[in-house]
Amino acid sequence: MVRNYWSLLSPLIFSDHPKRPGDEDPQPPFNMLRNVLDMNAHFGGFNAALLKSGKSVWVMNVVPTNAPNNLPLIFDRGFIGVQHDWCEAFPTYPRTYDMVHADGLLSLEKRQKHRCSTLDIFLEVDRILRPEGWIMIRDTAPLIEAARSVAAQLRWDARILDLDIASDEKLLVCQKPFLRKQ
């Protein structure tokens, strides 16, 4: 999964750079992603995949309070993490993270009868994500389509990618711009 994510980011990051015919897409700079926030860490699998693929990043694993408490399992794997209610502000400095990952978080919030809106969650992500940082959200197609319109409201550059033809899941890849377009 991480290898696929990284290969998706490479052409997006360098899409505005001219390439000679036959050149492969360059790899992202080694230190482009330093701090990653996994908003719905499950068992810490994204953290483990980053380590296995040799990515030198620091990951904060977050277990939503309305999900099963897998935090002890994350700790047992040697990772760090916290429990958090995403309808509240996340206790961190602004612009802390280079990448935010969320797998199934929108579905989880929908099952809770939308205690807070997707816009509320995205505004918090916008606060903690550095300019030119990346957001990768994996969820069902209808929720991803709705999330894309919220990303457009925030003036994030957003693309929806199909993951698998047999799956109803899609991936929303967004980048927070350095400066907001007027």
In short:
The chain contains 6 helices and 7 strands; from the N terminus they run H-E-H-E-H-E-E-H-H-E-H-E-E.
Short descriptors:
glycoprotein, globular, 7 strands, Rossmann fold, methyltransferase activity, 182 residues, alpha/beta
Mean pLDDT: 84
Query: Helical element count?
Result: 6
- What shape does the CA trace take? globular
Order of helices and strands: HEHEHEEHHEHEE
> Could you give the distance between the termini?
36 Å
Whole-number total of structural domains: 1
Low-confidence stretches: 13-22
CATH topology: Rossmann fold
Family: Belongs to the methyltransferase superfamily.
EC number: 2.1.1.-
GO molecular function, one term: methyltransferase activity
Membrane topology: Single-pass membrane protein; Single-pass type II membrane protein
